[in-house]
Structure formats: structure tokens, C-alpha cells
Give the backbone structure.
Amino acid sequence: MLPQSLLRRVGRRSLLAGAAATVLLLGAVSAHAQDTLKLGLVAAMSGQSAKSGEAIVRGLSIAVDEVNAKGGLLGKKVELIVRDDESNPAKGAIAARELVQREKVVALFGGLDTPVSLAIVPFANSNKVPFMGVWAAGTPITRNGAPENYVFRVSAVDELVDKALVDYAIAKHSTKKPGMILINNPWGESNEKGLKAALEAKKIPYAGIEKFETNDVDVVPQLARLKEAGADVLFLVANVAPSSQVVKSLDRMGWNVPIVSHWGPAGGRFSELAGPSASKVHFIQTYSFSGKLAPKGEAVLAALKKKYPEIKTLADVTPAVGIANAYDALHLTALAIAKAGSVDGPKVREAFYAIDSYDGLIKSYKKPFSPENQDALSEKDYIFTRFVEGEILPLTQ
Amino acid sequence: MYGLIALGFHVTYVVSSTVNFSQGSSVMLGAVLGWVFAVRLGWPMPAAFAASLLLCAAFGLLVERTLVRPFAARGSSAWLMATVAGGIVVDNAVLFTFGKEPRSFPALLTGKPIELLGTGVYPLQIVIPLVGLGLAAAFSLVLHQTRPGKAMLAVVQNADTARLMGINVRRTIALAYALSTALAGLAGLLIAPLFSVHSDMGTLFGIKAFAVAILGGIGSAPGVILAGLIYGVSEALITALFGSVYTQIAMFTVIIVALALLPQGLLGRAAVKKV
């Protein structure tokens, strides 16, 4: 109920006008909504990880434009609807519900945060809505044990990344006793398990496991403990800002130790934040726009520059993984929907398994999904990279 | 570092018994404005520092005028929530204007680490506590030796009597707020070269600094600075000795225990009403 005083102040006429305008607006929106096929994205659009959401939106939008240029899907134009999860699992779950139940999206796409994706997985499975991960690497997102699994992914998988990190540290640095410096959250924890398992499989002991917080200014105490314990390589798992705090702390200690990292540093201006030592960090990626690109890469980069004039150099197409994973994920989803000939969840799910091949940005996909493996990328698709003057450049082993 | 922000809590508390819970945002504002002036506009460092501190002080005046005075005047404690909300508004406004990405502050006294007690330390890391101690000393000098300082003390004692004595209580409280946000802004500027500049960098500092202020005894400037130093050193020590997993648990447990044993803080005095 509106208080009388407010009613009087605003005036009944303007209230009525406002109500009428709202009704008209709602009518217009729903009339417009009838003739599009909607796809939903739940990702971090604000806060520290906002850059990741922006990259995903860009990758998806370029692919949506391409699909629409070829006539859309099932005779309808494709429309992307974006919701901000603020990196908060509860908000992500509500946003997913709202997108499916109110906006009637046909499929959901996920963002960077593993905890948010994990909160959406049970909802997607019980409501039979395909949920496509394009970033969050948490192992149990796709391997969730549901009898009918509606969760697919075009991104790295922590368990496989950890194996790749250990393999790289052995091949490149012949590590005998690596140490771990991990962000203190579920992502860090998931990798702590993965790294331990991967090291155990190779019968390599670890010097120690240290955790740090996102807003820690000084990581020297943790690093000093690892140094004391005789670490010869550091495994780093953290997003861009905390990762740069680790690099700066190493500088201060004067400790020159090889760093093998998950893809956190790719999420922003790592070389600006971490200084010249940024290039010492070797990290994993699924894609890089640098160097000689395949025709598909050139085409996507050109489309990005055209649609987003603020992209001027390759340093502006970070994080490339977000753009590339999202781009391929949208095309794979579009293929599945076209193949299913329907927006019915179970039919689309079956159609994902029936995709034969797709010539994508990251690679040429052959039978990308099966009920046993709902991840389209494997450790063979990972590349190691480093920052050189603001650009992510691939490393050869 | 914590001491500087906590000193800001202290200043407004002693003068008006209110606290600006958006201190964390003032820290962020100091660093972000400094970055904008020094990097984006390319101003020389001293000018960037001065401009950023002035704007921080202006922010303090704004907070006092819009978020504290209207509520405190009615005897309501809603200023508590209002300043928290104000901080969130500012953080998000900066998110949209400054951008979503963390940026790097130009190196300042962070060129070459010097060897101290077995680890490398940047000169800046020694400067920060010195600035804190210096400011605390200067602060108590100003408070006891100058007219505006004495006016502040009078307002602390009894606002009504001070008003009768011809002291502008409103202006004194506003001044305290400007001073407190400028202190937080200075902390932000000093920490920026060691850290990265982004819109939510201040939140955790704000919370920790409030804990420090309470620990030191929010009514005592030397106590607050002392508690800041103790807090910072113990944080590093606990991490070095027991590992980082235990740092936050141990620190905040210590704070709870310390408050149970010394309810007035380290150097605080019991709030005795003088009649």
C-alpha cells in the first residue's frame, strides 16, 4: 500500500500514466519475445571477475550474430539474455530459475565461478534444461553423478588441468619437490585435491600447501614457508589480482623460482599488475589470439573488433579463453538445437551426443560429447602461455 | 596501515560518538583517485596525492552531511546502516566509472627491496608505519595545542556546553569527518603501490581497521596506532609460524579474547559519564 501522503504528492494522474506506460512496455516486450529463441547466460558481470563476464558475452554475441546471419535457429532469431550472478551462488541459482521459468530460455550458459555453476547444476538436471559451462573448471560440474546429465562444457576441467600442470613442471623444470600456493576458496580447494592426486600418481612429494586471501597485500610469510621447505617449483591457483601479489612478494624476497599456474593470470592486465616478473609465470590456456591464426581465428578477431570498437590491440581481447570457449560453446549448442529440431530439453540433450563434427575456433571437434564424457576439451587441447608486454603468448615446451 | 584507517574511526568517534563505516571505501577512493590523477591524467605525484586527499576530505564532508547528521540529529542510530550503504554505493559507482579491472599503481619507493631481518622489504613498507606514528603524534599535538584542536576536545567533553561557549559544534564534527576520510585516503594511496587498485579493494581493510580501532580502544589515538602495529605484525607472524590457513581464524579469535579481557581496548578508558 502506498501511503496517502505519497499518493497526494506524486499525483494520481501521473501514477496512472506510469501504470499505463508499464503495461504498454510489458506488452511490447512479451510480443517481441514470441518470435525469438532465447538463450540465457548467468555470469559475473560486476565485481572482481566482471571482466570474465564481459569476455563471455562477447564470445557468445559474435556466435549469435553468425547464427542469426544464417537465418537463426528453427526459423527464429536467437536472442541472448544476460543475468549477473555477482559471483554469488544463491544469486546465480535464482537467476537461472528466473531465466528458465519466466524468460523461457532454451539453454543456459555459465560463467567463471565454480561455486555458482555447482549451484545451478541440480536445477538444470531436474528441470531438463541443457546447461553449458564455458569457463568454470570445477571437476564435479559436468561429472555430477546425475542419471540424466544435462550439463555440458567447453572449457578446462580442474582435474585434467592439475595433471597437465604437474606434467609440465616435470617436463620443463624436472621438479622434485613442488610447493602449492592456492587461493583460499572452493576453487583453490578443488585444485589442492587435483594437484595432490596428480603428484601422487607421479610419486612426487610436495614441499607444502599454502593458502592466501584475495585481498592479501603481502604473501611473503606463506612463500617463505615454502622456500624453507625446499620447494623447487610453485603451483599457483588464483585470479589475476591475487596472482600478481604472489609475483610481487617473490620479487621482494628475491626468490627466483619457476611458477606453473592455472589460468587465473589470464583474467586481466597481469603484466601491468605484477610488473616485469609477470613473464616468469607459465600458465595454462585453451586458446590464444596471438601469433599466426587459423582463418577462423582471424574471422572471429575481425568480428570482435568490428562489434566492439574498444578492442584495439590483442591485450584487449583478454581473457581469450572466455571469448573462445563461449564462441565454440554457442555454436555447438546451436548445432544440437538444430539437430534436435526442437527446443525440448531431452531432445536437445540427445542431439548433443549426436553432433558429428564442428570446425571450431579452438579446434576441430569430432564427436565432442558422449554420455560418458560431457567435456568437449581434454588435456590435449591445453596450451601453456605467458605474458609478454601485455600479450599472452604461447610457449613451446 | 591498519592504524591509519583506524585512526579515522577514532577521530569521528571521539568528537561525535558516530563512526563512518564507509572508511573502506575512502581507502579505495584515495587509491583510485590517485591512480586517475597520476596515471590517466599524468600529474606529478605530489599534485596527485594532494588532489586525491582533498577529494577524500570532501567525500568525508558529504558523508557527514547526508549520511550521519540527519540521523544523529534525531538521536537515531540509522547512520550506522546509512554509512554502510553509502560505502556500497560508492564502491559500485567506482566499479562503473573506474572500470572492472584491477589496475597497477606506479612504483613509489618500491624500486629495490632492502634486506631487513632476513627478508626483503620495500622502503615504502617502513615508511607506512612511520607515517602512522608521525600522524598520531602530530594529531595529539594539534588536539592539545591549537584552537581547533581544543575546540574538538571541548565538543568531546560536552557538546552542549561547547556550543554555549561559542564553539561551532557542527563545523567541528564535519571537520573530524573530513580528517577521517583523508586519513583513510592516505592509507589507500600508501598501500596502492604494494597492491593493485580496484573498486572493492577497501572493504576488507575497513573491517580489519574497525577491529583494530576497537582493539586499541577507539577513544585513544596512541592505542589505535599501537593496535594497528600489533595487528599487522601478528598477522604476519601467525602466517609464518602456523601457515596461512589459520591466519584469519587466529587473528579474530585473539581479538575476541582480547576484548573479553580488556573491554576498553589496549589503551582505552572506561566511558565514565562526567556529571
